[in-house]
C-alpha cells in the first residue's frame, strides 16, 4: 500500500428517497432512488499506511480514540479491504459541509474512504464497483461516488453487485439547493434504525415502493424535459410520503420540529405568490430547498440564513 492522494466525494440530496432495506447486512434497498450531488460540499480523505496494529483516525484535524464510534465505523469498513494482510492506516477525514447546514456526512464519508482505499491499494476499480463497495458503508454513499444527478439502481442479486449508483447524462445549470437548518432540541433516531422501524411496524410502508417507482419515473421525465415544476413537485411529494410512513411507525417517528413546519408553510406561501420553490427533507428536522437561479433573491429574502449550492454551477 502507498499513501493515497487526498480524495473527495460530495454529499448528495435524494429527490426520490432510499427508505427501507431488503437486506440489512449489505444495505440493499427496497426501492431505487435518485439524488443530486452537492458539487464541492462533502468529504476529503487521505490514507497513509502506518506501522501499527490499529488504524489512526483523524476527523477535521483532531485525532480520535480507537474506541470512538467514528473510528470503529471507519476501521470496520477498511476491514472489508484488509483481507488477511495486517495493514493499517492513518485516516485523515475532513468534512467541508458547513456545520450550520445540518447535513449528514456518512454518504460523502464512505464514498471518499472507498476512493482513497482504491487509490492506496492500487485497486483501479471501475466506478460502479466503487459504488457497490461504498454502499456497504452506508446505502446513500453509493450515490456520492458520482457527480450531478445519480440513480441508485436497486438491483436483484443477493450479493448486491447490481445495486449501485449510475450517473445520469444530464445537467441543470440553473438548479439551486438551499440548506435550511432547523435546530433540533433532541437527538433524532438515525436513518438506519428509523428505516428499520418503519419497515417493521408501519402498514403504510406497503405503499412506499409504488410511490417511489412512480416518482423515479417522473423525475427522469422532469430531468429530460428540464421541467422544474415537475422536479420540485415530485421531490416534495416523495419526501412527504416517506415522512408519512415514518409517522405511521410505532413508536412514531416524527422528525419535524415546529420550525420545520413553519419553513414548509413559508415555502407554500411563496408558491402561492408565484415563486417556484419546493423542499425535500431527510431523517431530520432540516429542509433542503429546490429552486432556480432566477428566484434566488426572492427565496433568500424569506430564508436569510440559507446556505446555497449550485450542483452544476462550476461546470
Ligand atoms: C432519508 O444511507 O444513511 O437520507 O444505508 O443505513 O447507512 P444506511 O442509511 P442512509 O439512509 C439515508 C436515508 C435518507 C434518504 C436518502 O438519502 O435517500
Automatic annotation (TrEMBL):
Domain of life of the native organism: Bacteria
E.C. number(s) listed in UniProt: 4.1.1.33
InterPro entries in the cross-refs: GHMP_kinase_C_sf, Mev_decarb, Mev_diP_decarb, MVD-like_N, Mvd1_C, Ribosomal_Su5_D2-typ_SF, Ribsml_uS5_D2-typ_fold_subgr
Gene Ontology cellular component annotations, sorted alphabetically: cytosol
Residue ranges of domain Mvd1 C-terminal in the record: 182-302
Molecular function GO terms recorded: ATP binding; diphosphomevalonate decarboxylase activity
GO biological process, one term: isopentenyl diphosphate biosynthetic process, mevalonate pathway
Family: Belongs to the diphosphomevalonate decarboxylase family.
PANTHER family in alphabetical order: DIPHOSPHOMEVALONATE DECARBOXYLASE
Protein known as: diphosphomevalonate decarboxylase
Amino acid at each position: 500500500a502507498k499513501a493515497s492522494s487526498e480524495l473527495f466525494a460530495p454529499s448528495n440530496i435524494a429527490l426520490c428517497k432510499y427508505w427501507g432495506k431488503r437486506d440489512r447486512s449489505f444495505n440493499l434497498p427496497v426501492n431505487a432512488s435518485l439524488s443530486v450531488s452537492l458539487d464541492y460540499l462533502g468529504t476529503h480523505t487521505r490514507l497513509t499506511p502506518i506501522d501499527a496494529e490499529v488504524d489512526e483516525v483523524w476527523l477535521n484535524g483532531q485525532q480520535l480514540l480507537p474506541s470512538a464510534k467514528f473510528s470503529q465505523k471507519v476501521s470496520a469498513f477498511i476491514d472489508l479491504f484488509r483481507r488477511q494482510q495486517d495493514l493499517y492506516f492513518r485516516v485523515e477525514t475532513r468534512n467541508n459541509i458547513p456545520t450550520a447546514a445540518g447535513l449528514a456526512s456518512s454518504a460523502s464519508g464512505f464514498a471518499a474512504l472507498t476512493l482513497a482505499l482504491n487509490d492506496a491499494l492500487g485497486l483501479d476499480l471501475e466506478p460502479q464497483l466503487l459504488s457497490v463497495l461504498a454502499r456497504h458503508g452506508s446505502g446513500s454513499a453509493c450515490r456520492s461516488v458520482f457527480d450531478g444527478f445519480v440513480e441508485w439502481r436497486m438491483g436483484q442479486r443477493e450479493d448486491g453487485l447490481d445495486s449501485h449508483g449510475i450517473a445520469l447524462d444530464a445537467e441543470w445549470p440553473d438548479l439551486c439547493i438551499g440548506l435550511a437548518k432547523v435546530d433540533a432540541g433532541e437527538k433524532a433516531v438515525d436513518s438506519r434504525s428509523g428505516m428499520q422501524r418503519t419497515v417493521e411496524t408501519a402498514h403504510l410502508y406497503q405503499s412506499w415502493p409504488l410511490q417511489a417507482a412512480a416518482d423515479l419515473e417522473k423525475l427522469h421525465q422532469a430531468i429530460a424535459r428540464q421541467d422544474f415544476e415537475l422536479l420540485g413537485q415530485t421531490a416534495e411529494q416523495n419526501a412527504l410520503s416517506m415522512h408519512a410512513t415514518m409517522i405511521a411507525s410505532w413508536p412514531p417517528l416524527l422528525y419535524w420540529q415546529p420550525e420545520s413546519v413553519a419553513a414548509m408553510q413559508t415555502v407554500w406561501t411563496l408558491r402561492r405568490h408565484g415563486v417556484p420553490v419546493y423542499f425535500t427533507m431527510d431523517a431530520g428536522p432540516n429542509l433542503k430547498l429546490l429552486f432556480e437561479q432566477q428566484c434566488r433573491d426572492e427565496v433568500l429574502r424569506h430564508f436569510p440564513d440559507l446556505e446555497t449550492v449550485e450542483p452544476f454551477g462550476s461546470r
